Amino acid sequence: MSSPSLKPSPALTVTTPSDREVRTERVFNASRERIWRAMTDPALVAQWWGRGNRLVIERLEVVRGGHWRFVEHAPDGVHGFEGRFREVTPPERLVQTFEWDGMPGYVVISSMTLEDLGDGRTKLVTTSLFHTTEERDGMLDSGMTEGLEQSYRALEAVLAKR
Amino acid sequence: MSSPSLKPSPALTVTTPSDREVRTERVFNASRERIWRAMTDPALVAQWWGRGNRLVIERLEVVRGGHWRFVEHAPDGVHGFEGRFREVTPPERLVQTFEWDGMPGYVVISSMTLEDLGDGRTKLVTTSLFHTTEERDGMLDSGMTEGLEQSYRALEAVLAKR
């Protein structure tokens, strides 16, 4: 297997702290509260998560045990994503499962932390934990971090508008 | 943390092949086809999965990508369980995720293989893969294998009836 592709953008830092994890870091010019809202209000999520593609938010129950399900209408087809919330601590921390319909039953634990930098900016840190190294590397090779950075750029635009 | 409790019954063999897995083995006096049906037909599943407790089968879509959700009405309360099918190969192999409502977002990958022993009996092998060793040991300490053996005894009774 080829080594996973870690292609950082100037804004996004990507590391692999263990053989089953991917960690990303990115700073936003917005408060934790505003980022939290953009991540949990369906009307706002629909504006950035799909990176310009139409996104249908079928479920977004931001409580411990709640489910979420998004359907992205991309040029290459329709992609469903879903999961469940493990931990919800506004405006600091969100832990949820992540599953793509194309690989049902392959579940990633996605932890997101918002860190107040004290100057109006917020550091967003994510950790994705996979069941196996192969699943992690497959996700990295599928363009996970490029897609994330595209979403984050769209999120930045949403945050700037408000 | 105390070491996980591996309490095998005379019928059920339980091992831990890696630090994130539990493997079980049990032989049934029935063909693979009959066991497969008892595991995938909602009317039959309801007779054994809940170990004598009332079981409501809310969803049981036995296809790749399909969802399942069972609600067990036990003396100590109502317990929801759910997951999604990763692999469905009748009458040989079933891989699915498993999640208990009490610990949402903690997902086990449960693989089940039915092996024809050639004499009318079938060996049922399960492997459960956890994200962490702590999750595995927590599940073992919660009585996972005792509960499984109770279910299997109820399954045996269902198989004998038919």
Explain the overall architecture.
The structure is a homodimer of 162-residue chains. Chain A has 162 residues and is an alpha+beta fold. Chain A contains four helices and eight strands. Chain A has one domain: Alpha-D-Glucose-1,6-Bisphosphate, Chain A, domain 4 (2-Layer Sandwich). In chain A, helix 1 crosses helix 2.
Total strand segments of chain A: 8
Oligomeric assembly = homodimer
CATH superfamily assignment of chain A? Answer: START domain
- Termini separation of chain A comes to 45 Å
Mean pLDDT of chain A: 93
Strand portion of chain A: 35-45%
- The total domain count of chain A is 1
Shape of chain A: globular
Q: Note poorly predicted spans of chain A.
A: none
Named at the architecture level, the CATH assignment of chain A is: 2-Layer Sandwich
CATH class of chain A: Alpha Beta
Widest sheet, order of strands of chain A:
1-2-8-7-6-5-4-3
Q: What string gives the helices and strands of chain A in order? A: EEHHEEEEEEHH
**DSSP helix fraction of chain A:** 25-40%
The main β sheet of chain A shows up as: 8 strands, antiparallel
- SS element count, helices of chain A: 4
Chain pair sharing the greatest interface? A-B, 20 and 20 residues
